[in-house]
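Sample 1 of the test manifest.
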Amino acid sequence: MDEQRFQPRSDLAVEDENVLPNQDKTGIDVQEREVDDITIVHVDIDEQGAEYSGRLPGKYLTLETLGIREKDTNMQARLIRILSEELISFLQASGVDENSSGLVIGLGNRDVTPDALGPKAVEQLVVTRHLFELGRIQNEDGYRDISAISPGVMGVTGIETSEILHGIVEKTNPDFVIAIDALAARSIERVNATIQISDTGIHPGSGVQNARKQLNEKELGVPVIAIGIPTVVDAVSITSDTIDFLFKHFGREVKDRKKPANALTPAGMTFGERKKLNEEDLPDEQDRQKYFGIVGTLEDEDKRKLIQEVLSPLGHNLMVTPKEVDTFMEDMANVIAEALNITFHKAVTIDSSGHYTR
Amino acid sequence: MDEQRFQPRSDLAVEDENVLPNQDKTGIDVQEREVDDITIVHVDIDEQGAEYSGRLPGKYLTLETLGIREKDTNMQARLIRILSEELISFLQASGVDENSSGLVIGLGNRDVTPDALGPKAVEQLVVTRHLFELGRIQNEDGYRDISAISPGVMGVTGIETSEILHGIVEKTNPDFVIAIDALAARSIERVNATIQISDTGIHPGSGVQNARKQLNEKELGVPVIAIGIPTVVDAVSITSDTIDFLFKHFGREVKDRKKPANALTPAGMTFGERKKLNEEDLPDEQDRQKYFGIVGTLEDEDKRKLIQEVLSPLGHNLMVTPKEVDTFMEDMANVIAEALNITFHKAVTIDSSGHYTR
Amino acid sequence: MDEQRFQPRSDLAVEDENVLPNQDKTGIDVQEREVDDITIVHVDIDEQGAEYSGRLPGKYLTLETLGIREKDTNMQARLIRILSEELISFLQASGVDENSSGLVIGLGNRDVTPDALGPKAVEQLVVTRHLFELGRIQNEDGYRDISAISPGVMGVTGIETSEILHGIVEKTNPDFVIAIDALAARSIERVNATIQISDTGIHPGSGVQNARKQLNEKELGVPVIAIGIPTVVDAVSITSDTIDFLFKHFGREVKDRKKPANALTPAGMTFGERKKLNEEDLPDEQDRQKYFGIVGTLEDEDKRKLIQEVLSPLGHNLMVTPKEVDTFMEDMANVIAEALNITFHKAVTIDSSGHYTR
Amino acid sequence: MDEQRFQPRSDLAVEDENVLPNQDKTGIDVQEREVDDITIVHVDIDEQGAEYSGRLPGKYLTLETLGIREKDTNMQARLIRILSEELISFLQASGVDENSSGLVIGLGNRDVTPDALGPKAVEQLVVTRHLFELGRIQNEDGYRDISAISPGVMGVTGIETSEILHGIVEKTNPDFVIAIDALAARSIERVNATIQISDTGIHPGSGVQNARKQLNEKELGVPVIAIGIPTVVDAVSITSDTIDFLFKHFGREVKDRKKPANALTPAGMTFGERKKLNEEDLPDEQDRQKYFGIVGTLEDEDKRKLIQEVLSPLGHNLMVTPKEVDTFMEDMANVIAEALNITFHKAVTIDSSGHYTR
């Protein structure tokens, strides 16, 4: 298995150009469903599928919703419920029983707003390990044994995050680990609108990959579940996406010159509806060249490479985050923390979870 | 003079497509110079120039540097010195003498990081008005009479910012007003890299324009100098810019197929050098169509409109800010505050100014 | 009426040694009741009572509870309800009708944690004035026209807070004003445990008093209701209080040598119960001298003066706040904001108010 | 050696009633000197002295100054220099050479302002370990290999801080450890005015003491130097102190009835001068009883116990911090961070250190 297999091109499995296009092959299973305007995509990759896709074998779940970006509190409440249900499934599938102890890790730099998802979520967890140790509460009271830490980032501590976490796991022996992190999207439409859960472990700080620095079930001996939300996107992705949106725009115009473009993609449509619509809309290559010249004929990866080649030497391939980053981070950290509190502790219910995170 | 004259399409005069292209006409005077790798552009627009450009008559100064974005502390020190020199010129040109009293206004929402430039800068000012009132210091001690306030934004206070400020100016009677605000750029390369000073007043919250809501010399009876830094840019601008960079990239390729693209625009070049280079690089229309099809033949404004038309209904025309927004805002607020402290108070020198803003 | 009349020795009427001891005289009316473990004290002072007490004539209401200090969320919910009921009474008594518009002022320095009560409360208000101005909502929708501002403090702005506020009131013409401020207690037991509402106006920054700087109904032409919570206390008060507690301790020992001191004043007692108990416990002067020598024979004010005289030249008469100041301020600002939102807007109910302040 | 030996009654050796009073005995060596208005007290306790004092054997250094409390920036600059000199002595005495690697630990809860000294100081350190690991810098460049972490507190993480730190030390193998923590003073005059350095290790969270939870040279195998500043004091200490100040006040009155009390203890005196003066001023027992009755005759510990007994059941033995806690914490964290940066890295000098902590 070569090095590159461990360096997927996107933090999100659903964005990986080797995953969804390969979903008909043996070893990559994709299931999609819609619940309460939230699109849920399950991707299961086995060892064989890992060969096709260059992605770690395991389960990847994606929840897609514009609810957070549109500050829709009802949607956030539904999202908390669904996220909790899916987390319970992940824990069960990983063999974690109701009384298991868990360690939650908030990755990222708390002083860089778009990177502070993990630390902000961890702050709002109902943490109980010390109360179990002191004998003050027990599982019968409706709580699990939960600990939580935000280890900081290497640029601030000088220490590989994985070294810190290996040490803590060895000392505290949790039955499972959950890691929360802010991700980079390769698509403008996923920023602050997608939650990914996976059981393939984490590789904090990425960079050069070696086994010692990984935090996964193989290295730690306990299940490691990662929860990530993309909070930033680079200028290359924004431009590449927009050129694609332009293609589809022209494609629709070609197919149906009577309908106004806006009517076809109202902001109220779900991701799933949009996607279906969009796929039908792609113009053929001849039209792409007509509207976009040579650039229109490039494959997606080549188009991205070209844009990168142009922006990077100018210092303009900025990694950006929406202007409203402060409230987005608060809302998303709150959604994750409430979902985890409900997942962990029977004593915390959907109705009461708001009290615990204030 | 119609309404629209007061709604220029960009916060920055140098980005206004009606300004620089009209610089040879009577009434618009543009002077450019380079000091210590900082490009300084003076734009003077008189009543006649205002007719051509639809922009308020007055003086606009732009300092361009990547020093802040590249976290170059020496560059920041030079920037503080030059910014202070230019502010002194603006005050002198407005008839403000050394012992005049000033009110500094920090516009924007302190709880929205990319909007908090004004409030963060104002926090670091050496404020003295109360000490003058109490007779504890006087001009002979090397200080001016300075007051400062961050009035918040209408969405938070429920009050038009201009109403708050008109009230304060009436009660405190400053000899001049300086307003600091975070702006929106129409170009990715100006974000966190440009400082604009103008004497045309401010129009907080923009929106519907009426005289009562303006804060300018005519309304307030004292000079109003605005200092702005663009901290956000929208996806339309990022894409439009990048398509232009692609044009130039192909243009250069057409002209000189032997040189690698990167060699032509090293990141170390100043804005001025890049601009000159870029203008020579524009491919002709035929090449633009070849590489970019119909999109390549669009005028800039049409191209932007098309992109806007595609992104907005999808909810993807996000206003974004670089990921490192927290440190950028700290650094830029500090540069402005130190420059103002030096400008206002003889007792604060370039060497000592750092002590006052900590 | 001399100057001194306007400089009461405590921010709290119930702590003023000229108020409660004079409650049997004409012109000072004191009513006390207990609701849900919250002690509510009404003090009405008329012009004649003002002569006795040196305190501004008007209505003073005090809510006493240890619920915030003890982080009891049920107590906080009750407190929100009762505070809202009392605020409605104050508004009605001041002739403010249901559709009146209000301006809420958050006094204090947001960057000094124990002083940030006003700014923190104001941040959580449902502010609507701009929506009324734009015609987007109206009273029929269940909202009042509310605006809110935190004007900062003179040490930071250089401007008398009253000047800023006079200007805003003139420009925005609210029907009533509510001002929120952190106060200084003269007693350790009131810190973070007492809320005072009064209709006598505010005198921001106190210091030298002159009419121009007052914000009251007479100056502004509209009712001004002040809400204050003591968040700091000085070392003189802590020591003086503790010496008094020691007196009572000895007093009880003298009267009942068999009961342990603790049993007499369990932490679970209400303020009212404690007070009654305490008054019975005062030892007579002979015992006071026996246990405390000459110091034991001093009147309260003389004792405080002596302590002040000793601590001040040493630089040790610190103004202090409890270590847990951060959460206390969050909790108290939240209680005030939720109570005001319920008071102002019919659309905000006790059950829903939590959603508005998150 | 019994359990209690490890539970000294104060975090500060100089406040321990078993230390200074025993300084003439073998095994406890006390040296005091004055440098630039800063009182420096060295206390060396050997195994024998540990028997007398119940305090861990080792070196304790105390720097006393009101410079931070009085916001005197020149005093702070001197304090940084002297603190750095003393830290260099401690490191040398512990056998740490110039090229040794260090781990700095910021103890305390970053979200509780008076407890955030450690996390705030650690944020401002020049951290280099990762750059050494990547080969980007080396000792020859004027830097040491430094890492730094703020592990949080048990109430937030659910994990004993010592478990986290043992894990990190094992994984990263530093040559020495420095731990920074906010302490509790037993005296109002030491709050924010004393820095203690010791080589006896730390016992995070104190509470039940057992060897596993200690972080000292014996447990970790490398020197552990603790830096602490008292930031809080309880009401018992404030009262007890003030009663002592009253004693001295009366004592002076007895001895010299002509001088006003204030003239004897001007605020400008150093701690050392005040202390000397004060010791001469103690009234004899007969006078103490005259002025303070039975309370006046109590030994210090008995007086404290009595006050505690009275305040605790009332819920009034608050742990408090000065109102200006926010700026005090900023200033003190800055002093420690600058002193450490200078101590660690030759490339950071007293003149340049300010640039690194901004």
